[in-house]
Amino acid sequence: AFNDAGKSFCEQGLSLSWDEMQGLIIQTNLRGNLCQALDQKIDLFMAANDQQTPPPQDVFRLLDAAWIEQQLFESSRVQEAQSLHTTLASRNTSSDSCVAGPQDHQEIEVNAVGKRLICYICKKPDHIAPNCPQKKRGNPP
Predict the structure, then answer these.
(1) CA-CA distance, 141 to 134, in Å (whole number)?
(2) According to the model, what pLDDT value does residue 141 have?
(3) 138 — phi, psi (to 5°)?
(4) Which end of the chain is more exposed for a tag (fewer CB within 10 A), N or C?
(5) Which residues are in the CCHC-type domain (predicted)?
(6) Which residue has the higher pLDDT, 108 or 50?
């Protein structure tokens, strides 16, 4: 693959060294997040080295670093998600629990629909505190 690409570069009259060609070939054949991560690392390398393109050995090192970072990121996301599922699955779903389990869903919905509204300010039915006629607006108690 490198020989064929090298020949096509030469045929096009591009004055690239063999090392530069290998680095470009590697870079252009990557896809997705790994390509973006490698591009960022190469940009940082070039900024730190007077805009010189990195040799293939450094491109391989940067590629390895980008791949490892991506794998660590993915594994940490998976572990975080698994931890969350474990925490939620281990919660107590009894009636005095603050978390409603799947078996409580219909009961909660029925209570919410069937329960009459009672104001906690005046204790009268059919309205709630924000709509209470006895609420003193703007006057301190």
Answers:
(1) 12
(2) 47
(3) 80, -10
(4) C
(5) 119-134
(6) 50
Q: In whole angstroms, how large is the CA radius of gyration of the chain?
A: 32
Secondary structure of the chain as H, E, C letters: CHHHHHHHHHHCCCCCCHHHHHHHHHHHCCCHHHHHHHHHHHHHHHHHCCCCCCCHHHHHHHHHHHHHHHHHHHHHHHHHHHHHHHHHHCCCCCCCCCCCCHHHHHHHHHHHHHCCCECCCCCCECCCHHHCCCCCCCCCC
Count Cβ neighbours within 10 Å for each residue of 6-44 and write b for 16 or more, e otherwise: eeebeeeeeeeeeebbbbbbbeeebeeeeeebbeebbee
Retrieve residue 113's tokens.
Answer: 């629909």
Cα 16 from chain centre: 38
Q: Which of 81-90, 113-122, 126-135 has the lowest mean pLDDT?
A: 81-90
Q: CB atoms < 10 A from the CB of 61, how many? A: 14
Task: Report CA 98 to chain centroid distance, whole Å.
Answer: 28
pTM, 2 dp? 0.43
Confirm if 102 and 94 have CB atoms less than 8 A apart: no
